[in-house]
Amino acid sequence: MSDMPPVAKKVPVERTHHGDTVVDDYAWLFSKDDPDTISHLEAENAYTQGMTGHLKDLQETVFQEIKSRTLETDLSVPSRKGAWWYYSRTEEGKQYGIQCRVAVDGDTPPELTPGVPLPGEQVLLDGNELAGDSAFFSIGTSAISPDGTKLAYSTDFTGDERFTLRFKNLDTGELLPDEIPGVFYGGAWSADGSTFFYSTIDEAWRPYRIHRHTLGSDDDVLVYQEDDERFWVGIGLTRSQRYLIVSAGSKITSEIRVLDADDPTGEFKVVRPRRTGVEYGLDHAGDRFLVLHNDGAVNFELATAPLDDPATWTPLIEHRDDVRLLDVDAFKDHVVVHFRRDGLSGIRILPGDGRDPYEISFPEPIYDVAPSGNAEFETDRLRLGYTSMITPTSVYDYDLRTNELILLKQKTVLGGYDPADYEQFRAWAPAEDGTKVPISIVARKGTNRPAPTLLYGYGSYETSIDPYFSVARLSLLDRGFVFAVAHVRGGGEMGRHWYEDGKLNKKKNTFTDFVACARHLRADGWSSQIIARGGSAGGLLMGAVANLAPEEFAGIVAEVPFVDALNTILDPSLPLTVIEWDEWGDPLHDPEVYAYMKSYSPYENVDSRPYPPILAITSLNDTRVLYHEPAKWVARLRESAQGGPFLLKTEMGAGHGGRSGRYDAWREEAFTLSWILDRVGVTE
């Protein structure tokens, strides 16, 4: 341990782009194999440990609060697929879930009792057995063959998201000899279960190839390769299990190929050739395809297409400026549309019996709902996941015959949690240009205001941070905190326009929106001291607002933060860079993009003003936001800025999502929450 901050050595590296010459003193930290890099990260960990040592008791208290509120032996609601109900369960003291199934006996999901296996239960995968003594473990794929007799699954033991694919005979429990290393997430079976399709990645961590594996054979066949470096590829099976779908997509463009799942050695056929800026997705519904697309429809339109002519699209739900169509799920006798309106998600049912379409209503002012776990094609029930800031994650079945919403399970929160003790609100902050930015807020009733506040933000890739419940968050709320989510532009909360107004040459709207939300919370009497928190692209937001308005925040938590954005996006050899040009712009070839990104990239813009205390958290094996970004950022903060302290915590054996086991993850969250509490003087 050390009470003196590490001083990173300077090794000047000069680069010139578009006539601009920049010296990067900390580029050497990129070298993961350099012993000096590892020594520096270990020194940073020791310093962070020393600077947070006084919080050890608080960390343990918060960890025990999270643990004591969690039903450690628990299980999911079974979902039907074919002749089986599938579910997962957890056991007290074990880090990972256990995937199981039981045979179907009637249409109603079997009632499960935590800790009591059902008669006839078959364990498919036990994550604890698979993980063994490994410090990290993750499952990337878990796919049951259409006939229910085989399981394809993949595992990762380092966090680099490169998985090894294995196969299991579920009739005998036998692990088949087939083993394929270096695969990506996902995969799909042929209709007869003889063949499995999977994807692999290139050196830039881009899934670009689809392979066909015949069980018992070592001669896998490459069926598709995507050479455009802006595009990812994936493979899936329609819910009807009639068609295999190969999807190629950049940030702004899609191209889909289909193949009859009964003909796995056949040729995939293009639905519509790619056209820049046109995105579309496809599902199979009986005698037609359903196509969700944005061709002339910025918020997307739902169309139908003949099976023998999938390129001909006829509108079914036409485009609306105030409704963003998110997804469509096809079933034998109905269609389900997931949409977004007025900053909230919703569900629309299109009955197949001639009745008018209708929406499912929910009583809370802010919430999030989505179809979830609907594997069965022929069903009269729709499975939904629902949550809000005060309602724990809930699973409903919606009966399409009776229009009844049936609560199957609500996540148990131990310790006497009562939603009536808390209240949630939607506020609107005026941005610099007059745009109203939504904020979701939750607090314990009776909280004295203005109160210390944790303000969370993301704001990229059209990703929406919808209202959600968190057990760990209760440790803040019960200590008098307000928790808020700033739904800044660049996310998707208010539709596609909201995203478009926070990307490329409008990216700074994301940052100024967040600052506007902080100022509004303070001006409206909600907040006293504000701690900002965000991860990944939300970590870029954290770094940007630290430069933009450091005086607004009492502390900043930046998790796996994308803070060296300009240097990363300038290097096409790095993971994801070329793909990201559609999101951020291409500074390598466009001098205007270069100048714009340089004006906001956190690493480039650290100055000598006082900065709030900053906690940066990263993982050595992260393949999405490389560890060197926060390492360089913290080094520059120490060199140039006043204030702080600036802490870097590197998980030396994990990836983008941090530590994998649930108890380990709870301890990491307890560490972060304790640091947040300490920033505002709440240490008991």
TrEMBL record:
GO biological process: proteolysis
Chain ranges of the Peptidase S9A N-terminal domain: 5-410
Ranges of residues in domain Peptidase S9 prolyl oligopeptidase catalytic: 468-680
One Pfam entry name: Peptidase_S9_N
Name of protein: Protease
Keyword Phosphoprotein assigned: no
Family: Belongs to the peptidase S9A family.
GO molecular function: serine-type endopeptidase activity
Source taxonomy: Bacteria, Bacillati, Actinomycetota, Actinomycetes, Streptosporangiales
Keyword Protease: yes
Keyword terms, alphabetized: Hydrolase, Protease, Serine protease
